[in-house]
Every structure is written in C-alpha cells, then in structure tokens.
Amino acid sequence: MTTRAPAMEPEESGHGVRIARIGGVPVYLAPSWFVIAVVIVAIVAWPVLQTRPLFGLAVGLTQALLLLVSVLVHEGAHALAARAYGMHVLRIVANVWGGHTSFQAPRGTPGPMAAVAAAGPLANAALALVSFAALQATSGEVSGRVFTGLLIINGSLAVLNILPGMPLDGGQVLESLVWKLTGDRNKGSVAAGWTGRGVAVLVVLWFIGRPLLRGEGVGLGPDSIWALVIGSILWTGASESIRRGQALASLGGVTVADIMEPAVFLPPDTPVGAAISHPDAVVTTDERGVPCLVLLSATGQTPVDIDPSAPLSSAVTRVPDENVVETRPEAGIERVLGAIQATGVPAVVLTSGGQPYGVAHARLVNAALSRN
C-alpha cells in the first residue's frame, strides 16, 4: 500500500544520504558505499593512470555508478515484490556490501517471503541478459565498456545471491522451502545457516584453494583478500541465522502477552503530568501519525524532572519504525525479537489494526526466558 509522504518529514539518521524516493520508498547511500566506490575507481583506473589518467578515472567512476545502479535494481525488485504482497517497505539502503531493503511482513508466509527474496537475483539476471544483447549490438569502446561492466556486475550479483545459504537471497529461499515443508521457520533458519557456512567455505576455496591444487603459490592479492572478506561476512551471517533459529526454537510457548506491558494512547498535546499519572506505558503519534513515540511506565524508567504542563510529545522517546510491530497478544515473539535485534532499541510498540495496545521491552523478554 502506497501512502502519501507528509509535507514535512522527521529527520532519519543512521541510514546515510537520501538520494531518491521511489514509489514513496526512500533510497539512501550509506557512508560505507563511498568506500567501495573509491576502491572500484582505484582498481579500474590504476592500470592506465600513468598514460590516460582522466580516462581511467572516468571509467572507474562509471563502473562504481554501474554497481550502484545494479544494486538499486536488485533492491528495488525486492521492494516491488514486497509491495505486491501487501508488505510495507520502509527503505532501500546501498552500502559497502551491496544493499538491503527493509520491509514489514506482519503475516509472512513461506511463499511470499521466498518470492521477495528471489526477486533481487532474478532482476540482476534479467539486466545481465539485456546487457549481453546490447553488447552484441554495439561496437564503440565506451559503450562496450559500459555494457561489459553491467554484464559482469549483474551476472555476478545474480549468481552469488542465488546461492542457497544465509545471509544470501538464496538462503532465504531455502529457509522458506524448509519452513513450508516442516511448518517451522526456525528449522528453515538453522538449515539455511548451515548451508551458508558451506557456501562461505566454498567461496574461500574457489579463490584460494584452486591455485594450491594447481601447484601455484597463494599470495595476499586482491582476489584472496576479497575472498577472505566475503567468506567472513557469509560465515558470520550464516552463524547468526543458526543462532537465531536455535534461540527462537527454545522459546517454546512464550507469547507477545508474556513480554509486554499494557499501553494507553494519548494525543501528543496531552500534558506530561496527566500522562505520567497512568500506570501503564503511554504511546502517542509523531507528525506522520505513526505511533512510535513512547513514554514508558515507572518500571520502564519514565523521564523525570519534566514540567508537568509540557506537552507529552516533548517527553517521549522515539522508536524506529521497525519497532512498531503489528501483531496479536497470543502470537509468538519472533517478530518482536527481530525488531529489537535489527535496531538495537529495546522497546517495541505493539499494534492491532494500527492501534497501539502495548509495549514490549527487552527486560520483559529476558524475564520471560528466565522463567521458561
């Protein structure tokens, strides 16, 4: 569902520089993206830096922009697929490791989740085929370099991301498949995590083990360094998938009701004194109408030394949009834990039909787990 952006939007920090808004979805360049851009320019320009420096820099910048375009096509496909299944897309971020699309799936099921995951690699594969066709039809040096770059980048993104291991898109497809077959998403997370570890090992062996099998020495060249970096990232993401799946499986019958305190909704202009008098947590809306402003109860460290006549909006804590979770009290706590882990913010506003009814907190999660 597409919503019209308000005339004045709150500042969003931590995502980088906003470069566009596509279909209402903000697109950001994380600061780390500029690191990979500089690396690409340096690698591409170095061979011709002495003889054709301007040409080398131009080609390097072009390659960096082609990578950005390819990543945004990949993430845009995720966003469109999520939208098609009625999921709320929060943002697209391009960073040093590619990018990610943040979206909310209140009632995620295996089929839609697999389709959203597969959309990215499929979009890159389609762009690679278009680039290949265009390359056959062109003869210019500049256009040839552009289409060759697009072909290599998108072909690589498609192949790498469809590999069946977490944290790659193919791993999410595998997770959904196991989820569908067993009815247990946590088993899917563990299975995709183990295959992700296997993929990480294979990536390192492909770039480092092959030269050894051919009797060649292995140095710390660019290929070896990138293989170790990518392998490390894949291993870490796969291990996190295993840990998360095993941890969630151990939660047993813990429900949202076990980790929340009731909340009351009050308008933003309510005096702080009136809000603090409530025994429950207090939730109000921001300028967009999103219930992401929280005044916790006394057990949740309510702000002190605040003028009782001040408006509620001046004493609240803003939680990220990801921490406003649509769920039911009797539901499992996976989505609540996912929000806390993704943002590092311990409080989650719980809504039903868009209306807040409670606030979950990491301290209540820990208490429930200690009793379980």
From TrEMBL:
GO terms for molecular function: metal ion binding; metallopeptidase activity. It is found in: Membrane. Its cofactor is Zn(2+). Keywords: Hydrolase, Membrane, Metal-binding, Metalloprotease, Protease, Transmembrane, Transmembrane helix, Zinc. GO terms for cellular component: membrane. InterPro entries: Peptidase_M50 (IPR008915). The chain crosses the membrane at residues 27-48, 54-73, 115-135, 147-168, 188-208, 220-238. It comes from the Bacteria. Pfam families: Peptidase_M50. This is Zn-dependent protease. Residues 64-139, 146-205 form the Peptidase M50 domain. The keyword Zinc applies. It comes from Pedococcus badiiscoriae. Belongs to the peptidase M50B family. One of its GO terms (biological process) is proteolysis. It is a multi-pass membrane protein.
